């Protein structure tokens, strides 16, 4: 923006030279190594505008994995290198250096590790969980690396050395050979795959069925189990019925068969298997899985407050009864809720299917109590039941 000349500073192309720097005829003295003020080129002075261009792609090579700085500059036709100039705002001094671009080279693929909660083979419907994790070998060892960004169904920001453990159920619904696969990827685009093989066995010599589906709690289906003899002897011994992998009942074979009821399963979805423990002549095994739905028991709800009219200052006591319509010997459990005159619901526990509601000295006037039975694990919701009473002056 300005040029120094003989100890003076001039704006480029605008100021005149001082008198002692001119000859007697008014012309400037010879420069003798000094800088002359030069007008700054601009588009208004006829100079062409700078041309913006993009270079063609260029390939670079590196000695191996690691972190590098790519130095680059522009050079014009006169051989001048255009570098980066930076000004320190504190010292007001300028520095010159190359433009740089960091490059992180990572060619090592991440690793995926998988472990199953039980050894293969499995029976149909068995509950098995896969535990898996991923890691970046370079980053884990302190070497420059990009880090794990994908591990199975999980995603991460770059720079993760080890993901930690995740779990997922594996399918055992179909017999045969199967695989559980975990894909891993790092931020550099390297990928790897972990494949774990497992088998689901269905023993054809063990037949298992139920006579009804769905059933309603607490009733259950009748089981039909038949174990075919693989050799000359009729199978004997024990059969364990598994419910979602957990023992639910144990029966003894009679002439290689079982015909018994399985009652008391909780409401919900169940996967049942017959596990024959084997005997001296016949091998142990698992049947195919049988799906069973158990419905919650229907509930009848009733309430009585004894009187329809009370004197002011009297406590009002109401009795609530909840009954299992399928089995009156199996009273519903849990709580009932009541709301007085549209107020917030209040819970009262059931004892043998009965709950007592006590209202302390309600005010004069007409009152209404709305009672509900919320759905519990094995019992369906019931209600609302409404009972009314009036409070009068003595």
General description of the model:
- It contains 1 helix and 33 strands.
- Helix content is 1%, strand content 48%.
- The protein is mainly beta.
- The strands form 10 sheets. Strands 18, 20, 21, 23, 24 and 25 form a 6-stranded mixed sheet that branches. Strands 10-16-15-12-13 form a 5-stranded mixed sheet, with no helix packed on it.
- It has one helix spanning 137-140; strands at residues 2-5, 8-11, 66-72, 74-75, 81-82, 84-87, 94-97, 99-105, 111-116, 122-123, 129-135, 148-151, 154-160, 166-169, 176-186, 191-201, 206-210, 215-216, 222-227, 238-243, 246-252, 257-261, 268-276, 285-286, 290-295, 299-304, 309-311, 316-324, 335-340, 346-349, 354-359, 365-373, 382-392.
- It is flat.
Give a short synopsis of this structure.
This protein is mainly β.
Beta fraction of the residues? over 45%
**How much helix, percentage-wise, in residues?**
under 10%
- Sheet with the most strands? 6 strands, mixed
Number of strands: 33
| Rg of Cα set | 44 Å
Helical run tally: 1
Mean pLDDT score: 84
Sequence stretches where pLDDT stays below 50 over 5 or more residues: 1-23, 26-43
Note the gap between the termini.
105 Å
Salient structural properties:
6-stranded mixed sheet, disordered N terminus, 5-stranded mixed sheet, 33 strands, 394 residues
Please specify the SSE layout and strand pairing:
Layout: E1 2-5, E2 8-11, E3 66-72, E4 74-75, E5 81-82, E6 84-87, E7 94-97, E8 99-105, E9 111-116, E10 122-123, E11 129-135, H1 137-140, E12 148-151, E13 154-160, E14 166-169, E15 176-186, E16 191-201, E17 206-210, E18 215-216, E19 222-227, E20 238-243, E21 246-252, E22 257-261, E23 268-276, E24 285-286, E25 290-295, E26 299-304, E27 309-311, E28 316-324, E29 335-340, E30 346-349, E31 354-359, E32 365-373, E33 382-392
